[in-house]
Amino acid sequence: MTWKQKKLILSRCIVLLFIVFSYLQWDEYTDFHQKNVEYTQESKKTIQEISNFELDQLQLIQNPEMFKTPNKKLLEQITNEINNAEKRVWLETYILTEKRIQQAVKKSHNNWVDVKVVLEKNPYKAYSINNKSYKNLTGSWVNVHWSNTKNFSLNHSKFLLIDDFAYISTWNFSYSTFTKNRDFFVKTSDPKIIEKLEKIFINDYQWKKEIFEFPNLVISPENTRTKFNKLVQSAQKNIDIYFQYAKDDKFLNELITASKKWIKIRIVFPKTMKDDTEVLNILKNNQIEYRFLEKNKMHSKAIYVDKKYLFLWSINFSHYSIDRNREIWIILKNSKILSDFGKIFNNDFKQNITEK
C-alpha cells in the first residue's frame, strides 16, 4: 500500500470518526446552545427590569425582624434554630469561623436535614481563614462548595435559609460578629424573598450563572448601582449611612450631589477610617457630617433615607464590591424597623465625636 493510499484511508477514518462523534454529541451540543440562548434572552429581560426599577415597586416584607450586634443571645438563637431545623439549612457566607454554628450545622446534617454551605475560598487578606471550617464540615460529610471565581471575584454575601425563613445580614459567621461588631440582621419568612434567595443559593452552589431581580433585593454584581442611585436621588431631607469605608468615586459623587441639594447626610465610620484623610476632606468640603464608632467594631453597611427606606446589605463601597462581587442587600420600608434603626443610628452618631 502506497503512502498516498494510507493517507487517504487515514483521512477517511478521521472524517468518519468526526461524523460519529458529532452524531453522538449532537443532542448535548444543541441543548448547550439552547441554554445559552435562553440565558441571553432571560438576562436581557432581567437587565431591562433592573433599569426600570422605581422605589414605588417596593413591597412591605411580611413579618420582618431586625437584630443588631453585639448580641450573644442572637448567637444562641441562631444556633438553636439550626439545631432544630426540620427540612433544610442552606448557608452562604464570606467567613465561617464560629464553632457553635459549625457544630449546629453538623448536628442538622446528622439529623438528615438538607444541609448545604457555600463558602468563599480566598477572603481578602485572610486567604486561608475558611480552610479549617471547610475541613471540619466536609470531614463530617456536610456538603460544602467553594464559590466559583468565574462568576464573581469574591462571594461576600451573607445569608442563611432555615426551613421556611431566612436571615440576610451585614455580618460574617464569626464570634466577633456577636460579641464586638456593630452589625445588623434581618429575619424574614416572606415567601417572595425566600423564593428568590433559594434561586440565588442554588445557582451559586451549582456554579451556574444567572442574573436575578426582585424589587426588595439588591443583588450584586448586577443591580447595585441602579438601585443605590434611585435611592439617593429620591432623598428630600436626610440620608443616614453606616459605611465601613468609602472607596468608590461614583457613590461619593452621588452623595455630594445630594448634599448640594441641601440634603442632610450623616455617616458613621469605623475608627480605621480616620487615616483616610482624602475621603474625609471631601466629605468636610461638602458639608457631609461623619462620626467614628468608638465603642464597637463598625462592620455594618446601611443607608436610611427620609425615614422611608432602609437598605441593609453585605456590600462595601468599593468598585470590587459593587461591580464584581456577589453581594446581597434587602430594602425595607416597614415602619417599626425603620423607627428602631433610626434610634440605633442616632445613638451611635451622638455618642461619638468627629475627628479633631
Notes on the protein architecture:
Strand 9, helix 8 and strand 10 form a beta-alpha-beta unit. The protein has 11 helices and 15 strands. Helix content is 43%, strand content 21%. It has 2 domains: 65-205, Endonuclease, Chain A; 217-350, Endonuclease Chain A (Endonuclease, Chain A). The termini are far apart. The protein is α/β, with parallel strands linked by helices. The model is unreliable at 35-39 (pLDDT under 50).
Describe the structure concisely for a colleague.
The chain is 43% helix and 21% strand. It is an alpha/beta fold and 356 residues long.
Task: Give the SSE map.
Layout: H1 3-51, E1 65-69, H2 72-83, E2 88-93, H3 99-110, E3 114-119, H4 131-138, E4 143-146, E5 159-162, E6 165-169, H5 175-179, E7 181-188, H6 191-205, E8 217-220, H7 224-234, E9 238-242, H8 249-259, E10 264-270, H9 277-285, E11 289-293, E12 297-298, E13 302-305, E14 309-313, H10 319-323, E15 327-332, H11 335-350
Parallel strand pairs: 2-3, 3-4, 7-12, 9-10, 10-11
Antiparallel strand pairs: 1-7, 2-5, 5-6, 6-7, 8-15, 9-13, 13-14, 14-15
Helix pairs in contact: 2-3, 7-8
Return Rg in Å.
24 Å
The count of DSSP E runs of length 2 or more, i.e. the number of strands, is 15
* Strand residues, percent: 15-25%
Give me the CATH fold name of the largest domain: Endonuclease, Chain A
Total domains, how many? 2
Most strands sheet: 8 strands, mixed
Low-confidence blocks of residues = 35-39
Query: If helices are DSSP runs of H or I spanning 4 or more residues, what is the number of helices?
Result: 11
CATH architectural arrangement of the largest domain: 2-Layer Sandwich
CA(first)-CA(last) distance: 94 Å
Q: Order of helices and strands, N to C?
A: HEHEHEHEEEHEHEHEHEHEEEEHEH
Helix content: 40-55%
Question: Would you state the CATH class of the largest domain?
Answer: Alpha Beta
Give the rounded overall mean pLDDT: 87
In CATH terms, the superfamily of the largest domain is Endonuclease Chain A
